[in-house]
Amino acid sequence: GTLERWQLGYDVLSARNPGIILVRVSGYGQTGPDAHKAGYASLIEGGSHRDDPNASGRPRTIVRAEDPQRLLDEWSQRRRVLESVVPQLRAFHAKAGTAPRVRYLEGASGIRTALFETLDWPSPLRGVLSMRDLLSVPGVEAMEEYIAGRRERQLWLHVLRSPEKDLPGGWPTSIEDYRRTRYVPAEYVFTMSTIIGDVSAAMISSRRENFALVVESLEYVEMQRNLHEVLWAVAAHDTAPSGRSA
Fold it and tell me: Residue 140 contacts by C-beta under 8 Å, 6 or more apart in sequence?
């Protein structure tokens, strides 16, 4: 059989080591003449074995050959899992050096994750909020929860808005809601939302592009903070489209 051709038959292995059961796929963390023989462990761990009911004394394992496609399918699945976490691993690696840490978060769940992460940032937050888009994604319930979370933490938000992306009544300045609001001229429309912390900034798209980006970079955040302060200085105080309670 195949295992015998690879010198991995039971007789060969038991002659080398009477107590041997299996060898690992990669060989990591073990020694021995069969450590490099990939695939044997996968056959065993994948169910290609059974106990010998007629064996007496020391239990032994009998290995039977399976279709090699089973191994390929298993390795493909593991590869997909690894590929899904590589961006996060790269972000953690970059954090240790001078490179900025950048995370791309997709879909409504990604937008919610980025938004609620800012609740753990120090006060005050600076933001540009497109409320019509935020009420669409992550949604009204999520935004009400976010506002309540800021209120609970006494986390101030200095927010700039464009009238076109606000709602009648708006979200004006409110000491109770720890919010200071200013509006840019009507001809300027914010198509995305941005929240700026001390070392990180979160950018949130509309439903159309449906993503969030969190950048952890001192230089980038300093630039965004300065741009926000310039806009803040020239924006109008609470000239909302017309007093609702971000």
Answer: none
Going by C-alpha positions, the residue among 115, 11, 162, 89 that lies closest to residue 1 is 11
- Nearest of 46, 45, 65, 62 to residue 54 by alpha carbon: 62
Q: Which domains does the chain have, with CATH numbers?
A: 2-66 (no CATH), 100-237 (3.30.870.10)
Model pLDDT for residues 99-121, shown as the tens digit of each residue: 789 999 999 999 999 999 999 99
pTM (2 d.p.):
0.59
Q: Express each pLDDT in 27-36 by its tens digit.
A: 444 444 444 4
Strands 211-216 and 101-106: antiparallel
Number of H helices, E strands in the chain: 8, 10
Q: Which residues contact 131 (CB under 8 A, 6 or more apart)?
A: 143, 161, 165, 166, 167, 170, 171, 246
* 122-140 per-residue burial string, b: 16 or more CB within 10 A, e: under 16: eebbbbbbbbebbbebbee
Query: Rounded to an integer, what distance in angstroms lies between the CA atom of residue 54 and that of residue 52?
Result: 5
The DSSP result for 203-219, as a single string, is EE--TTT-EEEEEE-HH
| CB contact at 8 A, 1 and 9 | yes
CA distance between the termini of the chain: 69
Q: What is the pLDDT of residue 7?
A: 65
Q: What percent of the chain has pLDDT over 70?
A: 65
pLDDT digits (tens, 9 = 90+) for 91-103: 666 555 567 899 9
Taking a C-beta distance cutoff of 8 angstroms, is the pair 198, 120 a contact? no
